[in-house]
Specification:
The chain has a domain of about 170 residues: MetI-like (MetI-like fold, Orthogonal Bundle). The chain contains 15 helices and two strands.
Length: about 325
């Protein structure tokens, strides 16, 4: 007969520690990723190191003289060059205007496409078409059939309003390039925001509707805060890609008229192909990469902090 003692000390629970993976298991997990890592290093890091080496050299294509060490003279020339500063400002203007307007249009289109209507699937498929077009092909289509001063479609559509034979690429070059960038990146923003809208809890919207909240108040107080991470992600990705835009500038305006559309990528192209200044172009490229890394790191840390606050309910 078993005797049960009251007040006996409980049996101590033995904690089970997870077994640490051995060195062999760790390498087995990393081995499938090794080819991708090697490819990334070969394609990105080695060319950057070569560019860094050329940035300290005085080297011109059209001079029959080997490259020789020039110290920081290329960097000092870049920082004191008004053309570089102007291209930097134009890159910021083009990127900021394109990303902001594309995001605003993307939010509007996403709200419309989130509603149920006949043919919604077809419209969703068609609206992403501009993003699937190659940037070079989009630039050629816009510079010719769309914006040509004589037979362009835009002038034809605006003719009833008194607009005739406007040379858009000459009189409004910067605006024309920005419009093409907006046209191509609005579908991307729409898809990101649409994914955020579809992840929003429907019971929250129904509760707001029962409480008497209007459509605008619901969007401002509930939908927009929910879409904040998606909007920030779209702005970050769009900025990283659009700051490197080259196709539209090269094929539509060739940096002109004058230097009105010369951004950083096209400035580097001019330094190599017209000035034959490999060292100066390399120094400008290194500075551009460093500035891009600083901005991207700051934005990523800011977004990560926002996500942490939202998860903590702050």
């Amino acid at each position: 007969m078993a005797v049960v003692e009251t007040g006996a000390a409980p049996t101590p629970t033995v904690g089970i520690r997870p077994r640490k993976p051995g060195r062999g298991e760790g390498w087995q997990r990393r081995l499938p990723l090794l080819p991708a890592l090697i490819y990334t290093v070969v394609v990105t890091q080695i060319p950057f190191l070569v560019t860094l080496w050329y940035s300290f050299q005085n080297y011109f294509f059209n001079v029959p003289q080997p490259a020789h060490f020039a110290g920081f003279s290329n960097y000092s020339t870049v920082f004191t060059n008004a053309a570089f500063r102007g291209s930097l400002v134009r890159s910021v203007v083009m990127t900021a205007a394109s990303v902001i307007i594309a995001m605003v249009l993307g939010v509007a289109f996403a709200v419309l496409l989130d509603r149920k209507f006949l043919g919604r699937g077809v419209v969703r498929t068609l609206i992403i078409t501009p993003f699937l077009v190659m940037p070079a092909a989009a630039a050629l289509v816009w510079s010719g059939p769309m914006l040509d001063p004589n037979f362009g479609l835009l002038n034809y559509l605006l003719a009833p309003f008194g607009v005739h034979h406007v040379a858009w690429l000459s009189t409004h070059a910067l605006g024309s390039v920005i419009v093409v960038m907006i046209w191509q990146w609005t579908p991307f923003m729409t898809l990101i925001v649409l994914a955020g809208l579809q992840s929003q809890p429907s019971d929250t919207l129904e509760a707001a509707k029962v409480d008497g909240a209007g459509a605008f108040a619901t969007f401002r107080e509930l939908t927009l805060p929910h879409l904040r991470p998606y909007i920030e992600l779209g702005i970050l990705l769009g900025s990283i890609y659009l700051v490197n835009s080259f196709d539209a500038v090269r094929l539509m305006t060739n940096g002109g008229p004058g230097t009105s559309t010369t951004n950083l990528p096209f400035y580097l192209y001019q330094q190599v192909n017209f000035a034959f200044n490999v060292g100066g172009a390399a120094a400008a490229g290194v500075i551009t990469v460093i500035l891009t890394i600083i901005v991207a790191t700051f934005a990523l840390r800011l977004f990560a902090r926002v996500f942490q606050f939202e998860e903590a309910g702050v």
